[in-house]
Amino acid sequence: MRCLTYGRRYSVLIEPTELYKRISENDPSILVLDVRREEEYLKERIPGAFSLPFEKVMESMDASYLAALFASAGLGIDEDRSKDIIVYDDASGVQAARVAWTLEFLGYEKVSLLAVTYSMWKKLGLCVDSSNVSTKLITNVNITALRNIEVNKGIIADDEYIYTILMTRVFEGKLDKIKLLDVRERLEFLDRHIMYTINIPWKAFTAKDRILRQKEEIERRLKNHKISVDDEIVVYDESGGTFAALAYYALKIAGCRNVRVYAKPLNACKASNLPLVEFKDAHYRDLVANPEFV
Amino acid sequence: MSAGQANDRSTDVDEQWGLPEEVTSVEEILKLYREGKISDEEFRRFRLQYGMYSERLNKEYSMVRIKIPAGVLTPRQLERIAQLSEDFSIGSAHVSTRENIQLHWVHVDDLAAVEEGLVEVGLTTREACGNTVRNITCSPFAGVCVNEPFDATPYAKAVARFLLRNPLCQNLPRKFKINFACCDVHSYARIGDIGLVPAVKGDGNGNQVRGFRIYVGGGLGPASYLGEQLEEFTPEDMLLSTIMAIIRVYDRLGDREKMHRNRMRYLVHDMGFEKFKEIVLKERSIVHLTKSVLVKLNLKERKVVDQYDGSEELQHSLPDGIDIRWYNSNVIKQKQKGYVTVLIPLPAGDVSASQLRVLAAICREFSLERCVRTTPWQGFAIRFVPESRLVELYNALKEAKLANYGGQGIACVVGCTSTTSCNLAITNAHRLAKEIRRRLIELGLDTDPAFSNTSIKLSGCPNSCGQHMIATIGFFGAAIRINNTLTPAYNMLLGGKVGKESALGKVVARIPAKRVIDVILRLIEVYKQECINGEPFDVWIDKVLAGKGSGAIKDLNDLRAIIEEAAKIPPPDVDPGAYIDYGSEKKFAAKTSRGECAA
User: Fold this and answer.
1) Are A196 and A166 in contact (CB under 8 A)?
2) Do residues B190 and B147 touch, judged by C-beta distance below 8 A?
3) Residue A212, in any domain of the structure
4) Prediction ipTM score
5) Residue A95: in which H helix or E strand, if any?
6) B587 inside 8 A of chain A by CB
7) Run of H or E including A102
8) Which residue range forms the structural domain that includes residue A173?
9) Region(s) of chain B under CATH 3.30.413.10
10) Do B506 and B555 contact (CB within 8 A), yes or no?
11) Whole-angstrom distance, CA of residue A124 vs CA of residue A127
12) pLDDT tens digit string along A127-169?
């Protein structure tokens, strides 16, 4: 079952049973990507999956690097654009989402996330493959900056972009239609956040045994914070756009049309000159059950 | 119900304290507030009635106080609180001394969603704050205590059921607290507006009548009082009339003007207990004669195990694989042979979402009553654990870092939330409580029987959320000038206790926050030198306070000299850290704002 959402021609999630069915039928139109670490992939994987380790994707946002990386992972740029790409991880969907979003950035359109993690796939008793596949590993990323690679700039935001939004708000008082969404955990947000941001911790989008919640639940959460599907939404974290990428897909499930991810690598945004709000009048961090104290 | 049936998942039923229409009310009020159609003040009054209390110096965030009547929580409720803490709060929850569970730093716009999540599993925040009857607490040992005449839990819950949303107590002069005990030893009865200790009395026909010893007018705060016993014995059938009469008298005569004098204990104290008692008893006869026949307590008794034949009882030897240190301070035999209650201490009451989930699973697996209790020591108790399953339980707790030492005694340190979230707080008593506990455990003091009846409790301000007045060693936060520098500090109290002989602690010294641990350790050191015939620490403290010390420390003056010596700090240029509070890196400033516990 697919949930097609408005403004998106391809479903966000693919159910494990559906993927299983398509694998069993040897469906030639699918391409499954495993973004776990190579050694995990080598041990076992969803049958037929290719390895595209998350770490390698996170190395750079440079389009020619990414294009070369995807090519060496078995994604021929042209012929595979017609394929249904399905990405999975074993990290709450966060890594799969970031890789999937990067694929979209590079112009792939038919990208979906497996609705469950690899552990859950196994728990559901679905088949895994543990044969020797060392030949399928990425050995060499051959960057040839010859081709003119067109990237999808509509799903990314950088410092400058956010800065412009903030200035628009400050000077023209209109931010009604543009929302900055910070999906870090509450304590991190309290410590420091970009001015005018809304905080919805990323876990609020995830479910107990699925990487993302149902549409209605996500919609409710957005409604509480007066975020409409018609708004332009910039999602932010401080982990290189990983949690933000998962939130990107949550927003897509809810039907948001215009979502951008702030995908700077870890800590880079600290150096930026964006106006920050700090809150230091309470020792809220001491209210956390810290394993240091038992 | 047999033990087998009790283990069935279908008995995992939540009582419906919450109402779905109240979620709608929260939603509507929030909308009006955001649209600017009601004032801050109107919103404040509303949200306090719903247990939503503004966070420290930040109006955008709220604490959500979940009422846990009698401290009873089901596994499903634990799991829901875990989820809500991750979705809307800080990923941890806090167990309070009045057996509530609090979610902190919830965004105001999420309040209706949190309320909805709670109501779905039967919980409510209604009347957890504001000028109402707050959570009705009950001893976590009620129903299993070897001293008790009967289980007070059904009575505590029935009174809670009766008073929740009751027009009688929607706008009292101030908050109102009711505590049910199991017995005198475990009693918190004398520190509540109303405290009840179960008792039985012969009716002259050879039957035993159930009833309570009711204490009134107690309470802790800047001025604390212990409750006085209303009458020798209040039979069960007079319980509701008595409670109604007390609330009615307080509602009518209590002070509504002077914010700091409007708790019932001041009314009782100002008019004199005898006069108050007379008015209450007169009021009670009126209530009793005029109340509708429909007004009665809805008692729902629940039997967990049918017969206590002790068939599950183990030999006296400790089961293999259990840490004796944990066993000694955390496992308590129940009156039901073969079953034990396991205490789960939490550092200053903080528990993570993942720990709550483990606790829920453990409760389903090991507790025959399939619920947990919150404790006045900011922890949990799991009861009706068959002794034969203790090893498995211990291992499961240990894996979740919940098999911690010091379930009772000196290492079971209590600390209110203080500057982590409260507008009134001066110091970070919460972190300090954790630091003290860690140090005492490092030193192995949790294993020393001399300190098993000693308690340490801290509050971040003179209001007594940390219940410092009833601790053997109590502390409440203050800001003092030392060497011309504003310094986070504590007033230290000695000799407080609850139970059979309740007593309020006596303020003995002022100590910089960074010297509190040194002072405690110094006191322990002195005690070890002074103690004769193995008298426990708390007994020795009482002796010294009474001026009857038998060694070098004769009285409080001798002890004070030692405390003051240990509390000294060098000038700020030598040790700047001594002038900075726990959890801070910057200069201390006593920032506070209007408190809302007063509403």
Assistant:
1) yes
2) no
3) yes
4) 0.93
5) helix A94-105
6) no
7) helix A94-105
8) 153-287
9) 137-290, 414-579
10) no
11) 9
12) 999 998 877 787 777 776 556 788 999 999 988 888 888 887 7
